Structures are given as C-alpha cells and as structure tokens.
Amino acid sequence: MVDARIVQTTKALHAAVVELASTRPVSSISVADVTRAAGINRATFYSHATSPGSLLTAVLTPELDAIRDEDHVLRLDGRADGPDATRRAMEKVVDHVVRYREIYRLALPDPLDASIHQALARHFEESSVQHLAGLPAGSLPEGLAVHIAAGHLAHGLVGAVEAWLGGKRTSRRALLDTMNLMLPTWWG
Cβ atoms within 10 A of the Cβ of 86, count? Predict the structure, then answer.
C-alpha cells in the first residue's frame, strides 16, 4: 500500500510544476520555485525528481503512454484498420497537447531545456517502432531502417506540433489532418 503522504506530495509537486510551466519555460523554473509552490522541502523534491523538467516529463508521459497502449490493443483486437487506428491515436495526442497547450507552447522551443521536446519525440518514436513492428511482413519498403524512419517521423511530428502552437492560428483539425498527411503512404 502506498503511503498517503507520498501520494499527496506527488500530487502537490505535479500541480505545482504544471502551474509554473503553464506560465513560463521549463528552463526558467527552479527547484526552489517548485518546492515553494508545492509546500515541500528540497530533499523531498529530489526524492521525486532530478529537475523541474524531469518532474514535468513525469506528469505528461503517463498519458502519452496510455495513448500508445490503447492504440496497440485497438490494433491487436482488429477493432480498427491501420489508418483509422492511427488517426484515433493522433487525435488523442492532439487532445493531450491542447489540454497542456501553454506548457507545450512554452516548453517545445525552449533552447535551455529540451526535456518536453524529447518526451514527446520519444512517445512518437516508440509508437512508430511499435506500429511498424506490427505491420505484415513485406509491407515496408526494402532497405528501410525502422529506427531511423521512426526517429525522422517522431521529430517531424514534434516540429508540426511546435509550428502549430507558435505559428499562425489554425484549428486543432488542421494540425490533426496535417500530421496524418505527413505519414508515408506505406505507413498502413
């Protein structure tokens, strides 16, 4: 059984870093800022995270992991064909980005802390590798290095999210449609 104090401390830390990261880039948030906002001491912070960026990553990553897991089950069960499953998963990622819009808007272009950029890219990369591994034999182009293709796609999708958040105001649907159109024809 998990100690109730640990649960409360974790909730306080998560709420504090989300609030702070919604108003300024992660690189400008200090451990002291987080501990003050959460009402905890420095030692307690370091028992939960190594930096504000790692703490914020710990807040955002489980939701992204759940999206990937749900996508994997959906594909295994055959409840959706490849393009439909991909669109559903992308839509959930876009919903996640919209929910944390200000955090991503400030964190993705932050040149001094790439933790959130890396976390989102890692999500797309791991999801891509998982998807490509599940395609029927012979459906990938000959000579394709899956890990390189997954990395290319992952960072392109993060770039699309960053451009959408920082560029000319367009709809959530425009982001989703563009991300899906960026997928190669052999994606499946």
Answer: 20
User: 149: number of CA atoms within 13 Å, CB side?
Assistant: 19
- Other CB atoms closer than 10 Å to residue 49's CB: what's the count? 20
CA dihedral sign of residues 9, 104, 106, 100: negative
Architecture per CATH, 53-187: Orthogonal Bundle (1.10)
Question: In the 8-state DSSP scheme, what is residue 177?
Answer: H
Sign of the C-alpha dihedral computed for residues 49, 50, 52 and 55 taken in this order: negative
- The ranges assigned to domains in the chain are 4-46, 53-187
Architecture of domain 4-46: Orthogonal Bundle (1.10)
Residue 115 has pLDDT above 90, yes or no: yes
pLDDT at 169 over 90: no
- Identify how many contiguous H helices and E strands the chain contains and give both numbers: 9, 0
Q: What is the pLDDT of residues 121-152, one digit of tens each?
A: 999 999 999 999 888 889 999 999 999 999 99
Integer CA distances (angstroms), 102 to 7, 108, 181, 186, in order = 26, 10, 25, 34
Task: Give the pLDDT confidence score for residue 1 in this predicted structure.
Answer: 67
The alpha helices in 4-108, defined as continuous H runs, are 4-21, 31-38, 42-46, 52-77, 82-99, 101-107
CA distance 80 to 82: 7
